[in-house]
Amino acid sequence: MSLLDTLVVTTLPLVPKSIVRRFAGPYIAGESLNDAIEAVKKLNRQGISTTIDVLGESVTQPEKAQQYVSNYLKVLDAIDQHDLDSNISIKPTQFGLGIDTDLCRDNFIKLMDKLRKYDNFVRIDMEDSPFTTLTLDLHESISAEYSKSGIVIQAYLRRTIKDLEERLIPGKANIRLCKGIYIEPHDLAYKDTDVVRKNFNLLLEKALKAGLYVGIATHDEILVWDAMRIIEKLDLSPDQYEFQMLLGVTESLRRQIVLEGHKMRVYVPFGKDWYAYSTRRLKENPKIAGYVFKDIFNLK
Ligand SMILES: Cc1cc2nc3c(=O)[nH]c(=O)nc-3n(C[C@H](O)[C@H](O)[C@H](O)COP(=O)(O)OP(=O)(O)OC[C@H]3O[C@@H](n4cnc5c(N)ncnc54)[C@H](O)[C@@H]3O)c2cc1C
After folding, report:
1. 200-226, pLDDT tens digit by residue?
2. Is the predicted pLDDT of residue 15 greater than 90, yes or no?
3. Does residue 9 surpass a pLDDT of 90?
4. Cα(62) to centroid(ligand 1), Å
């Protein structure tokens, strides 16, 4: 990132919400469920599967978590009614993990009847490190109840290799592998780009060799090519893995992966609580400064 980009990223909290919303437009489907349905239909027509995510996290009141449960029940109905090729992803703190682990688990259990009825899949997103162990525990408890569930692991965390070897491989988990997005201390997380990439590849190869289904979640061309090499070396069939990307990011790379015959799933977030997710995405955009200046000076 250039100095200017870094400057824009650090001053992002000072940028008015209305402007952040405009910059973040491409990363979110919109504020309503209908917006998400339309975005999913468009992707499905291109042969791309999706994951619908109701935006929201760090809930501090049980009633708010309950609202999110209701929203997800509506999402599951809509996926069935509109015959969408989509599953769902949920942040544990959105269902109350920051309040109480039992409350959070109970909220997940409230989705089970509908998940069973529609035979759909639920992914538990991974948040920052205070929640890693709790999320692994939650996933074990949920997957014991409902097998069509999965978890996320982060290649930047030093502990992840152990979590994979000692818990996820023995448990035959369905995993999404990503680099990780939260700001973590050096003693918990690798900071060097190349080390994170090497760990990503190590985790990917170990998981695939052990027969886990892996969602390879990255927009990093180097990692995508490394993944393709590992897939070829292990002679995997297309039903043993998928690539995953976020809405609005690196669409040309996404098209190329699809053209090469790999399964692709796009994460489609929607909802009124878009701010935290949007600022994380903007901070990852390597051209953020250009974006901001174009907008300020109204350049096309
Ligand atoms: C489907 C999916 C689900 C995820 N779930 C989680 C999760 O549960 N927990 C978690 O911690 N993290 C999650 N992440 C985020 C992930 O951890 C990374 O922060 C994110 O994917 C960026 O890392 P990267 O591998 O794409 O590499 P990067 O090096 O960040 O990006 C590679 C290239 O992609 C492009 N790019 C990346 N981001 C942007 C952007 N915002 N705008 C424009 N271009 C961009 C740039 O060209 C960049 O050089 C998820 C990511 C995906 C794809």
Report:
1. 999 999 999 999 999 999 999 999 999
2. no
3. no
4. 30
As a whole number of angstroms, the distance between CA 76 and CA 71 comes to 9
Pocket of ligand 1 (CB under 6 A): 125-126, 152, 154, 176, 178-182, 217-220, 244-246, 249-250, 267, 281, 284-286
Could you give the 3-state DSSP secondary structure of residue 195?
helix
Compute the distance between CA of residue 202 and CA of residue 162 in angstroms, rounded to an integer. Answer: 12
Q: Whose CA is nearest to atom 5 of ligand 1?
A: 125
pLDDT band at 300 (very low <50, low <70, confident <90, very high): very low
Radius of gyration of the chain (CA): 19
120 φ, ψ to 5°?
A: -100, 175
Known active-site residue 163: no
Average pLDDT over residues 262-268: 98
Residue whose tokens read 């180097």: 222
Q: Catalytic residue among 176, 197, 265, 281, which? A: 176
- The CATH class that applies to domain 25-273 reads alpha beta
Residue among 243, 179, 171 nearest 212 (CA): 171
Is 176 among the residues known to form the active site? Answer: yes
